[in-house]
Design brief:
Blueprint: H1 15-30, H2 36-48, H3 50-53, H4 56-59, H5 67-74, H6 93-109, H7 119-133, E1 136-137, E2 142-143, E3 148-149, E4 155-157, E5 162-163, E6 168-169, E7 175-177, E8 182-183, E9 188-189, E10 193-194, E11 202-203, E12 207-209, E13 214-215, E14 220-221, E15 226-227, E16 232-233, E17 238-239, E18 247-250, E19 255-259
Parallel strand pairs: 1-4, 2-5, 3-6, 4-7, 5-8, 6-9, 7-12, 8-13, 9-14, 12-15, 13-16, 14-17, 16-18
Antiparallel strand pairs: 10-11, 18-19
Helix pairs in contact: 1-7, 2-6, 6-7
């Protein structure tokens, strides 16, 4: 095996356009009187329906436009759509309505031309939104496209956490991600479960991934499980019980099979800077 740290790419000649747009969005969302739903709607209109961005209110009432077009324009405003967690009995409506526009912007951005597979712009936008959605988020949070949450406001995220594509973070009961946690593509982290005999009965224990934990491809962590620091859940694994520190758990259900080498015995990575690290973090 060979150490392969991430490369630092040269920014595109027009990168400042994206940076200025994100600065303006951050400024708008940071104002005490910010109307998050309106900001979400305007942003999505400018990204996806620029011809209607300046006259959205008129367009949705224009009977000359196809009903499907008017319906799509209405859906840019999060007040005109519903998200699944709004139906959950334990949803704190005051908290959820505050984060809902940001979740809708997060999800919808990934389906735009600017979003999609655009790593640099996508990571920067999600890094901007995360502190406004999560309970806490540390430095250098890196999240790729098509990641979804339940409430979002029950997520406690440490420093240098990486979440890859198509991950579900079901934070109904709460999820804690320690520093340097890495979650690979198509993983599912749950913090709610249903009684087998009556699915209306729901348990919502906190699920915790300790410092340095890795959850690999297509793996699932069930509600209330704790992966102790520096442990790892292997591909397709199903964690139904706690995984001890420094252990590699495999299988369905997952069992600790191997001990990882102590940190002191692992090769040190070269002292290169993460190309998407926060500038202020050094």
């Amino acid at each position: 095996m060979v150490l392969r740290p991430l490369r630092a790419l040269t920014r595109s000649p027009n990168a400042r356009v994206v940076e200025t747009w994100l600065e303006q969005l951050a400024d708008a969302l940071g104002r005490p009187d910010a109307d998050r739903a309106d900001i979400c709607r305007r942003t999505l209109a400018e990204l996806s329906y620029p011809d209607y961005a300046a006259n959205w209110e008129t367009a949705v009432e224009d009977e000359a436009l196809p009903l499907a077009t008017r319906t799509a324009l209405l859906a840019l405003d999060p007040r005109n759509i519903t998200l699944e967690p709004e139906y959950y009995a334990e949803c704190d409506d005051a908290k959820f309505q505050r984060v809902k526009p940001l979740l809708w912007l997060w999800y919808s951005f990934d389906r735009t031309v600017l979003g999609g597979q655009n790593v640099d712009a996508g990571v920067r936008l999600r890094r901007l939104l995360a502190p406004l959605i999560f309970k806490r988020v540390g430095a250098n949070f890196k999240c790729f496209q098509f990641v979804e949450f339940s409430f979002g406001y029950n997520l406690d995220v440490g420093d240098d956490v990486v979440v890859h594509r198509h991950v579900l973070l079901d934070d109904r009961g709460g999820i804690v991600l320690g520093n340097r946690v890495s979650i690979a593509d198509y993983a599912n982290i749950y913090s709610h479960s249903h009684e087998l005999g009556d699915q209306r009965m729901v348990n919502t224990p906190v699920t915790e991934l300790g410092e340095g934990v890795r959850v690999t491809y297509h793996a699932t962590v069930l509600a209330g499980t704790r992966l102790e620091p520096d442990s790892m859940l292997g591909a397709m694994g199903l964690a139904t019980k706690d995984v001890p520190a420094g252990q590699l758990a495999l299988g369905i259900p997952a069992h600790a099979r191997f001990s990882k080498p102590p940190l002191a015995e692992r090769p040190a990575l070269p002292a290169t800077r993460d190309p998407l690290a926060d500038p202020e973090s050094g």
